[in-house]
């Protein structure tokens, strides 16, 4: 519902220039989050083979966070110290299982960058749904993009609402 | 800009009948009782127990992702917790007693507690033990049972839905975040209410009960205390009350009436979103173990940090931001307490989107447990619907971060808009909003860091 000044009421009461500014901010945020980057930026250190031993116990992985680089061949040795545990990597859809004395193994090329949760996929007790670790495949462009998008949003929103 | 949804004839008929709401409440009560039974006698394995899966995954997802953001307090209108107490109070199930008479001692709730401080304390208590309550069927059952017993006891002693209004730990944050919803119950014309001497919406009539939430609908200016029970739609003899679709967040645009208890609720909710995102879905096993080891020295340290974050550190940082703004904006005359409470409106969109982001991170991954639990709610080896063999399947786990980012950015944008609006409404320079804007931006970056870094 428009009032006499031609501005809509409440949240939507923005002048036309305001809508332009909102559009530009939104476009910049989308560009920051989604635009493909030059290959040179997306590639980190030279790919290598990484052996990672992850120890699983109720309800923790040790180490809890694993860092690799894009293109690395990652070989995960999962060892369990108490009961049967699993390891499922979000975003990669890969899984393995281990029980005491019987380690599991997982091998994959880390071809997607970002932070991915890995989690136990064998019910192991009450906190099982929260038995979680993190695989960070660098360069973590998702995080960098999110930082940039947040700052653009903050600056854009402040600029946009400042003049109203 | 609003549209009277309840004026659509079929909607109006549905809202006027007492059967619809009663049936929905009876249905949720059935699920609620099953959750308690499953917790008490079912398997202790949380992911195979109806109580855990349906309360903390299915219901929680429904509440945070759909009901609260889009329908406000709609859940409160069909919540099973106060239902038995209310039915006892009314000595009726569906149709009202003549004149809406209630059978209760009808005591008034003490004036000192007519706020949401007790709800804040209750929520903190549940949140402090959340790593046990959320994962242990027996603990969930006892908490739910406890809520219901307190609700029944309260309804026998105090008037109407005193429990919902002043005690329910869940109702406190639903009320706070319901201000965001694009739905509201309001009167159509305040002048009609002013000339209506009987005020049947508050006192009750043969058609229904006086507002169970102890509100005079004619004075409603925000959603926080209206439980959408629709009694007033039935009792208003002037047909002057409606449910409207409106601009999202319309309640937050006003400056008057913000209170310190609601400000603290916003801060507690934001702090808990951080703590849950760190402890429950973070990669630090030692934190999970410590949070669960109740009574150990480590747990006392955890409890101390938990309470300090909720009650002192985050509120302290927010106070510093508001105080800095007061100095920058050259508005020393406005009391800090008022500025603090008014600026806390920014915490509503910020906190709600933080909870949506947190919920996305575990609900989609764990939702598939619901299919097997439907067939075997107690974990006793049944296969009622033939779905017990459906295995755990995480739904779109790789996409979750791409949903969390826009959700948090929407919350940040709304928070910054509110910060600047609050500054203007207090006659401050827009620069006064800058420290609060930095607080909001830092909170968003902090949450994104927990999810994406």
Keywords:
heterodimer; A: about 160 residues; alpha+beta; Immunoglobulin-like; 5-stranded mixed beta sheet; 4-stranded mixed beta sheet; 3 helices; 9 strands; about 25% helix; disordered N terminus; B: about 450 residues; mainly alpha; two-stranded antiparallel sheet; 21 helices; globular
Model description:
The complex is a heterodimer of chains A (164) and B (453). Chain A is of the alpha+beta class and 164 residues long. Chain A has helices spanning 16-34, 39-42, 141-162; strands at 49-57, 60-62, 65-69, 73-80, 85-89, 94-98, 104-109, 114-119, 132-138. Chain A has a domain at 47-139: Immunoglobulin-like. Chain A contains three helices and nine strands; from the N terminus they run H-H-E-E-E-E-E-E-E-E-E-H. A five-stranded mixed β-sheet of chain A has the order 3-9-8-5-6. Chain A has a four-stranded mixed β-sheet with strand order 2-1-4-7, with no helix packed on it. Chain A is elongated. Residues 1-9 of chain A have low confidence and may be disordered. Chain B has 453 residues and is mainly alpha-helical. Chain B has two domains: 2-180, no CATH class; 259-452, no CATH class. Chain B is built from 21 helices and five strands. Chain B has a three-stranded antiparallel β-sheet with strand order 1-5-2, with no helix packed on it. The longest helix of chain B has 32 residues, at 297-328. In chain B, 53% of the residues are buried. The model of chain B has no long low-confidence stretch (mean pLDDT 96). The interface between A and B is large, with 54 and 58 residues.
């Amino acid at each position: 519902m428009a009032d006499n000044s031609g501005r809509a009421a409440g949240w939507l009461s923005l002048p036309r220039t305001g809508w332009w500014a909102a559009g530009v901010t939104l476009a910049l945020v989308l560009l920051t989050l989604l635009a493909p980057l030059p290959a040179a930026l997306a590639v980190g250190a030279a790919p290598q083979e990484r052996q990672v031993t992850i120890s699983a116990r109720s309800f923790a992985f040790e180490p809890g966070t694993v860092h690799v680089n894009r293109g690395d061949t990652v070989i995960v040795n999962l060892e369990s110290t108490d009961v049967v545990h699993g390891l499922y990597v979000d975003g990669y859809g890969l899984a393995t299982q281990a029980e005491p004395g019987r380690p599991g193994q997982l091998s994959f090329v880390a071809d997607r960058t970002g932070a991915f949760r890995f989690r136990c996929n064998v019910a192991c007790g009450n906190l099982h749904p929260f038995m979680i670790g993190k695989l960070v495949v660098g360069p973590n462009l998702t995080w960098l993009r999110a930082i940039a998008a947040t700052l653009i949003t903050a600056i854009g929103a402040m600029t946009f609402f400042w003049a109203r | 800009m609003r549209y009277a949804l309840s004026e659509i004839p079929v909607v109006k008929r549905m809202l006027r009948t007492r059967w619809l709401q009663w049936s929905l409440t009876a249905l949720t009560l059935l699920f609620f009782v099953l959750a308690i039974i499953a917790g008490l006698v079912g398997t202790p394995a949380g992911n195979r127990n109806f109580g855990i899966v349906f309360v903390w995954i299915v219901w929680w997802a429904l509440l945070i992702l759909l009901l609260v953001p889009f329908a406000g307090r709609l859940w409160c209108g069909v919540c099973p917790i106060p239902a038995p107490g209310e039915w006892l109070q009314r000595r009726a199930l569906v149709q009202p007693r003549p004149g809406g008479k209630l059978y209760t001692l009808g005591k008034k709730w003490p004036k000192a507690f007519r706020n949401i401080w007790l709800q804040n304390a209750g929520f903190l208590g549940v949140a402090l033990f959340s790593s046990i309550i959320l994962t242990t069927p027996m603990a969930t059952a006892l908490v739910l049972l406890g809520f219901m017993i307190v609700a029944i006891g309260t309804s026998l002693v105090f008037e109407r839905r005193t429990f919902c209004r002043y005690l329910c730990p869940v109702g406190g944050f639903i009320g706070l975040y319901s201000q965001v919803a694009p739905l509201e119950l309001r009167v159509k014309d305040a002048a009609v209410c002013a000339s209506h001497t009987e005020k049947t919406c508050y006192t009750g009539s043969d058609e229904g009960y006086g507002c169970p939430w102890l509100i005079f609908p004619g004075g409603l200016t925000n959603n926080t205390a209206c439980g959408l029970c629709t009694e007033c739609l039935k009792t208003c003899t002037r047909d002057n009350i409606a449910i409207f679709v409106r601009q999202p967040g319309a309640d937050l645009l006003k400056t008057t009436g913000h209170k310190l208890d609601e400000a603290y609720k916003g801060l507690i909710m934001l702090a808990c979103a951080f703590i849950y995102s760190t402890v429950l879905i973070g990669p630090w096993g030692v934190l999970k173990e410590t949070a669960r080891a109740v009574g150990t020295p480590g747990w006392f340290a955890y409890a101390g940090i938990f309470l300090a974050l909720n009650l002192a550190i985050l509120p302290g940082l927010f106070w510093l931001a508001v105080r800095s703004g007061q100095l920058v904006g050259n508005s020393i005359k406005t009391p800090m307490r008022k500025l603090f409470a008014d600026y806390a409106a920014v915490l509503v969109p910020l906190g709600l989107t933080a909870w949506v982001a947190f919920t996305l991170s575990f609900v989609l991954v764990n939702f598939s447990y619901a299919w097997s639990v439907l067939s075997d709610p107690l974990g006793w080896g049944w296969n009622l619907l033939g779905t017990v063999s459906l295995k755990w399947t995480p739904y779109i786990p790789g996409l979750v971060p791409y949903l969390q980012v826009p959700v948090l950015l929407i919350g940040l944008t709304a928070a910054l808009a509110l910060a600047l609006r609050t500054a203007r409404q207090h006659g401050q320079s827009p620069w006064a909003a800058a420290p609060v804007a930095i607080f909001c931006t830092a909170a968003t970056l902090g949450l994104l860091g927990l999810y994406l870094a």
